[in-house]
Structure formats: structure tokens, C-alpha cells
Amino acid sequence: MKFLRDTLDKAKHNFEKGGKYHKYYYVFEALDTFHFSPNTVTPTTGAQVRDAVDLKRLMMTVVIAMVPCLAFGVWNVGYQHFLALGQAASAGEIITVGLIQVLPIVLVAYVAGGLVEAVFAVFRKHPINEGYLVTGMLIPLVMPPDIPLWQVAVASIFAVVIAKEAFGGTGMNILNVALTARAFLYFAYPLQISGEVWTYLPAGAKTVAAYSGATPLAVAAQASTEGESVVQAFNSFGAGWADNLYSFSNMFFGFMPGCIGETSTLMCLIGAFILIATGVGSWKIIAGVFLGAWGMGAFLNLIAVNEFMAMPAHYHLVIGGLAFGAVFMATDPVTATQTEAGKWVYGLLIGLLTVLIRVFNPAYPEGIMLAILFMNVMAPLIDYVVVSANKKRRLSRATV
What we know:
Blueprint: H1 2-15, H2 25-35, H3 55-85, H4 91-124, H5 131-141, H6 149-164, H7 177-188, H8 216-225, H9 230-236, H10 248-253, H11 265-277, H12 283-302, H13 307-310, H14 322-329, H15 340-360, H16 368-399
């Protein structure tokens, strides 16, 4: 590391004001601060807040919290691959297949989005912030394992330009950047982001008899249209090739087809624990999403007129991407509400809307993405109402 430090120090003058590469200073600064702590210090005069937490540490904490989801996703991609083929495989073979599929998606997302950020930094002359460390990991985790790499690149570029840089860069965006990438792909290339695309299968691969790569949400929607109990559909799904694939325990642990990082509720809860313990994520938002989803599911059980509405409420918490969205998307400090009361309202409404979209729109059974994006837009209004109510309450006390 000393060699790298010395090399960067020797090259630094070329990128400072007056140097021949001065217009690329912020690219150099990003490279320097990515490897080493900045050499800036808090001024010694005036009132200052001294804290060990900076943007880099904040973002790295979120990345660390996502590692369990990424690691399990790598394993599950390989596991689902061999399950669909009806082949026995060792842990090493499962992980190898998972790595071959997942790592290129992660690399493309980081490179494509990172280059766009570098270009904007050069032309706008602003620093490259560490925010994309999180976004570059979130984008692959909400993708199918067999997504074409060029689509990952296009979605990453679109999300950075439209959802982030168009609003002024890190800290200014009103929409979650990773979810914007996912929404872009869903509406621009629906064939590659919907249907039975959730299991990696080589071209021409022969699957086991009666194989289906449908997700639990697709199974639930299909059962509802046929008047079949959703729970019975889950229990019978995979009969003959993957018995009990959609048991409640399997869905909680994540042994099912789905996006790379979204299938395991358990891994998402481990990430939630890390975020809450470090003070990075809001437990109120996370709890609000789960409570809102369960509450709406329980209410629909009471007025059920179809089988999807009658599905036990707790199933909504372990299917689809609800847990992942609650932990890593809804808690985005830039796009979420900032007031304490607002966090409860924001989380509850996300959970509520997610279930409503799932149940009443069979053509689009997953709802967490649209629910979060909609509430991103509504977050400032929620904070405004909360702050206004607080002001009125305090003024009324002052006049008594």
C-alpha cells in the first residue's frame, strides 16, 4: 500500500490546479479517497461537529449489510440451476455456477454507472461521491440471474443519468436510483425481466419433466384466476421435481427462483440488523413496511372475494422482494422521509401499497418496486405535513 500511496502522491500535482490534467482532478480524488482516508481535517477554530462517520463509511456499512444477500444469491443461482436440470451437484459446483452468472452482472453495473459518474464529475467539476458503491451493488441484486449484460449496462447508465445526475448528483435525487434501473428494464424490456426468467439455464438445456420457473407471486396470481387455494398451490408446486419448493420455510430462507439478492428474507433480516445496529438504517421504516404489508394482507383476508386475497397475511412478508425492498430500498436516507413520525407513515404506506398492487394487478404481481418509487415522490409531502402539524401543536401550547 505504501507503493500505491507514494505513486498517487507523485502524480497528484498533475491533477491539481495548474497541472496538465487538472480537469480530471475529481476522478483522481475519487481514486485516492477510495483507497485511502482523505487528508483533510476538521478546522481547529469555531464550533465543529466531530464524528467518525463520513459518506464513505456510511456507504460501506450498507455494502457490508448487503453481503449476506449477495453471498446467498450466488449460492441460490447455482442451486436453482442444478435443481431445474435435475442434477446433483457439490457445493463447489453450485457456487462456481453462481459466481459465473452473478459476478459479471456486478462488474458491469459498477463499471457502466461508475464511468457515467466520472464523466459528470469531469464536466460539472464536482467530486465523485461514494453513493454509487451502494447503487452499483443494489442494481445486480434486483436483477434476474440470466439478464443480458448489455441491459444491465443500459439500465445502470439510465438510472445514474435520469434518477441521479439530472437532479444534481448524490443527495439530490428524489427516486431510488437502483429501483429506477429496475423499473426502466421492466417497461423497456419486459421479456427479460418478467415471466419465467428467474433461473439460469444454458441455451438448449433440457430441464426435468414438469419444470416451471414461476416465482411464488406468479403461482399465487395463477391460482387466484383458477379459483385454487394459494397455499395449496404453493404446496403442490414443483411436485415430482422439487417437492415443497414453495413451503413457507423455503420461502423464508430463500431456496426459490427470484432476483439474485431478493429471495432470502433471512439474509435481508441479517442486513437489517447490521443497518439498525450501526444507526445507518431506520428501524421505523423497516418495521412500518412489514406491518403495513401484514396489516393489509390481514384486512384482505376478512373481505376476501378471491383466493389471492385469502392468502394468509404472513406469506406476503416472505414472497417477492418485500423484505429486500424494506431493508435496502425504503431506508435510502436521500429518498425516504426524514421526520420520525413521517418514517412510520412512509413505511406503512409502502407495505400497504405493495400488497394492493400484488393482489389487484395479476399482470404485475410484484408491487414493492412501484410502491417505493411512488412513496419516494410522496416523502417530501409527508414530512411537510408532519412538520406543519408539529408547528401548529407548539403554537397552540404557546398561546395557552
